[in-house]
């Protein structure tokens, strides 16, 4: 309880100006589920420069995160190859980029071994992440942790993390705003298929 109160006090006193969010798991849902927590962070730090690090193939989804200032990407597919030179190059590049931006707060929604190290290496004063029972040493890389629970939906887990950091949501927002330039493709398909944009449409993905 004391730890939580200290974090809440710190978040109120420290108006972070540069914040990095990390969710680089390949699943689309893992990224989209951060939306409510993202909105809480944006609400509490309206003037902050907010950046999000995601996989290269999912980064386009971040265009729907209203108020996001910067999108950073990492090609995680390279890690499944044996191209050690390219893997090393990718790691060094992202480390340099993160270090140069001098983030003050990192919220690591992934909280893997690699992202935990990146959070620490970033040099950010505050680093929030999840802690698994079997990975106690990982807590040393974060300044605020929440124990990962399989009984919570990911949305609730992400919200719990930012709340532990001291950011209590005034309301839960799950807004995804499709940019105008991204609307051109679906509108063209609707016209091609003879569908009406004004009527509900059900897609079956088999």
Secondary structure elements and their pairing?
Layout: H1 2-13, E1 18-22, H2 28-32, H3 35-44, E2 49-55, E3 70-74, H4 84-101, E4 105-108, H5 113-121, E5 126-131, E6 144-147, H6 154-164, H7 180-193
Parallel strand pairs: 1-2, 1-4, 2-3, 4-5, 5-6
Proportion in β-strands: 15-25%
**How does the major sheet shape up?**
6 strands, parallel
State the secondary-structure class. Answer: alpha/beta
Q: Just name the CATH architecture.
A: 3-Layer(aba) Sandwich
| Rg computed from alpha carbons, rounded to a whole number of angstroms | 18 Å
N- to C-terminal distance:
48 Å
Domain tally: 1
CATH topology: Rossmann fold
Characterise this structure.
This protein has 206 residues and is of the alpha/beta class. 38% of the residues lie in helices and 15% in strands. It has seven helices and six strands, in the order H-E-H-H-E-E-H-E-H-E-E-H-H. Helix 5 links the parallel strand 4 and strand 5. The radius of gyration is 18 Å and the shape is globular.
Summarize the structure.
The chain is an alpha/beta fold. It has seven helices and six strands. α5 links the parallel β4 (105-108) and β5.
């Amino acid at each position: 309880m004391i730890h939580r109160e200290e974090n809440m006090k710190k978040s109120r006193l420290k108006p972070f100006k540069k914040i990095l969010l990390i969710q680089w798991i390949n699943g689309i849902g893992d990224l989209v589920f951060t939306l409510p927590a993202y909105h809480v962070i944006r609400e509490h730090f309206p003037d902050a420069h907010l950046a999000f690090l995601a996989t290269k193939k999912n980064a386009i989804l971040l265009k729907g995160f209203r108020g996001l200032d910067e999108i950073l990407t990492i090609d995680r597919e390279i890690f499944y190859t044996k191209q050690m030179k390219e893997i090393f190059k990718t790691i060094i590049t992202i480390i340099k980029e993160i270090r140069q931006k001098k983030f003050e707060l990192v919220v690591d929604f992934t909280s893997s071994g690699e992202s935990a190290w990146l959070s620490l290496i970033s040099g950010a004063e505050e680093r929030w992440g999840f802690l698994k029972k079997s990975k106690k040493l990982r807590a040393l890389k974060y300044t605020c942790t929440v124990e990962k629970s399989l009984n919570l939906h990911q949305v609730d887990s992400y919200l719990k993390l930012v709340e532990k950091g001291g950011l209590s949501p005034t309301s839960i927002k799950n807004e995804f705003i499709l940019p105008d330039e991204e609307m051109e493709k679906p509108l063209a398909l609707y016209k091609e298929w003879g569908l009406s944009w004004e009527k509900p449409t059900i897609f079956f993905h088999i």
